[in-house]
Amino acid sequence: MLTRKKYQQETKQSFNDSTNTTEKQFEYLELENTISSLIEEMPKKRKETYKQSRFEGLTYIEIATRLSISENTVDTQIRKALLFLKRKLSNYSFMLIFVYLTFFK
Question: Which end of the chain is more exposed for a tag (fewer CB within 10 A), N or C?
Answer without folding.
Answer: N
